Amino acid sequence: MASEDNNPGEPRVNGERTELSKPIRRVPSIPDPALHKELRAALKKRGIADRVAGAISTIWTDPAAVLPQITNPQRRRIPGAYLLVVSGSVYTARLVPDPLNPRNADHVPFALAQAVGAPPAALASAAQDGEGELAIHVESRDALIEQVDWAIETTRNRNRPVPDIAEQGIMDPPIGVATTVHYDGTDESPTTHIIVREGSSRTSHGLANMGVDAEEILFSLPRSASSMQAHIDKINGYVGKPVEDILDAEKAAVRCAVTDFELIIGVVPDVAGAVDLPQAIKARVAQDHLNTKTPWTDEAKNTALAEECLISARAAGAVPSDAEADWLGGRITPAEARSRKLLPYGDDRAARAVHLFTTDEPRIHQAVRKPIALVLINEPTGARKRARVTARTKLPLAVELIIRELRGKASEAEITRFRKSLTEALPDNIQKLSWLPTKRSPEDLYKAAVKEIEDEADMRPAVTELWVRAAYVLAKHNAISGPRHDLGEGGDRRSARAVLEALAGSERGLRHFRQVIEDDRAGIKPRQVDDQGQPRQDGEGNDLIVTNEFLRTKLAPKGGEIPPPLTPGSSVQERYKRGVKAVRETLRSLETEMRNLVGVVDDNGTPLIEREGRVHARLLMDKLQELAGDAQEWWEKAVEAQSPGTNADTITVDEGEDEDETGEEAA
């Protein structure tokens, strides 16, 4: 048996084992420009634009090895198509990590949130812009630099590859595509970059190890042979040092300077026109991250998919205008929405998002379904498996669109709570309900909803619309939450959905739905209202706020009986009955708690209240005697009031009022 010291997998230095780190090697110098020209010409023959071909030709360390692949590219299978790919060794510093990396989708701050100091990041889908080329639009070069810097740092912070890239370099080849950036806010000419679409995390770590920033990888190193050669010379200077003088950070820079890479230059769909280049690339990324692996969070996945569904819905006309698509996507502020003649209210935006992603109307459903199905298709044996896209699949995407209003200005815990509360508060089987988001005011919706209840209508579109809008407001203000399990018999295990369903079935509940929507639109917290629709107030004259406890215990108690609020207009007799009932319940509770107190005994079985409770018992006795005195006074006055000759109309007692708790007549 070989000894551990003879393990051939463990390299040795001076007889001692070292870590299995990647050896450092000199970075190849920039190839002969003639090879770049030849490669550029071959790419143009394939129909690739000259500007794009130029960007592609300069990334390779050995263009001669890539040249034969241009006429005979490799094929990579994805659902519904083949990607055309060329591969080889490239300079890492000429690759751009995806500025729109969907891994970071759940951290992207949107204009809708109006977050002060938030980075200028935004999701914008890349569209096909020629053979083997995508295009994106940004405001300016500075905006692109900031976006790439944000994406690199966010990606690195959220994902640390194992083994460490500083030790091993970039092991799995990143996959990318030539992408032209158009600068809409300036007169600057478009620029083309090789953007990594799969492997952004690895590339981001590699670039960080080399100490290059976004401006260099975008506009300095790819554009200038002298700048690139200076970069190569700097790294090779580390290699030329005595081995004992080379720092770990310098070794990491050398290991990351070059990587294997796959460049996508086209797509061949199974059915002509069924899958374009952007869809094919997303499907390729999804194969690694959304089906078989789970490095992305569900929130990131849903945010990215929601964006694709929104684009698809706009293309199909299911979203009527670019302005509405921008509003639903959170890319404009409420003020900008108003200027574009859109209703600038959060509840309206939420209702439209929920309807878009849950309706079974064929045109809308198919438009939303297509991007989701492309991701959910699984081909373990090469045979296509039809994906089932349901409201359960789609609703989380709508919720991610809605909560974009909080990205960048609320904590992750607040966003998580809002997401969960909203999802649980919406109607069950909402896809089976016939409703549409309308432009009716909350008051008009309320009137229509009340009429639907009074008419006992089978279809209640106004009720549903009012419910959806109110669910958004209540979830946003933390006024509705899930079941409570912490209070024994006093607990309420009903879901938020069940509570709102009870409210949706009563005029009082619908009145509060209307009120919370109106209050949210006015920028104030949702308020409780009485039967006349007037805000209820506490003893100091402050408006009473709608809370989860109020909804569950006062407005829609779990027994189903909804007592009317005690307003100044309530009858004296009704208030008296409630007071008597409350006192009786309190006495029963006191009796139970006193029994429980006596049950707390020491090792000898002596109740602690009898051994140590002198002070406590005295206080209790004094208070009970005081209360007994009050009760005695009440009794005497009641006897006097009901004596012969007294006006008996002063107090009216319901039949059975004098019965004791057993139901038998009092002696």
Question: Could you explain how this protein is built, in words?
Answer:
There is one protein chain. This protein has 667 residues and is of the alpha/beta class. Helix content is 47%, strand content 9%. It has helices at residues 33-45, 50-57, 63-71, 141-158, 165-168, 200-210, 214-220, 225-239, 248-256, 277-291, 298-315, 322-328, 334-339, 346-358, 362-376, 391-402, 412-425, 442-454, 461-476, 496-504, 507-521, 548-555, 572-598, 608-612, 614-641, and strands at residues 12-13, 16-17, 74-78, 81-91, 96-97, 127-128, 133-138, 175-183, 191-198, 258-269. Strands 3, 4, 5, 6, 7, 8, 9 and 10 form an eight-stranded mixed beta sheet that branches. It has a two-stranded antiparallel sheet with strand order 1-2.
Oligomer: single chain
- Radius of gyration from the alpha-carbon trace, in angstroms: 35 Å
Distance between the termini: 99 Å
- Give the helix proportion (percent range): 40-55%
SS elements, strand count: 10
Structural class: alpha/beta
What is the averaged pLDDT score?
Answer: 84
Largest sheet: 8 strands, mixed
By DSSP (H or I, 4+ residues per run), the number of helices equals 25
Molecular shape: elongated
Low-confidence stretches: 1-18, 378-384, 648-667
Proportion of β residues? 5-15%
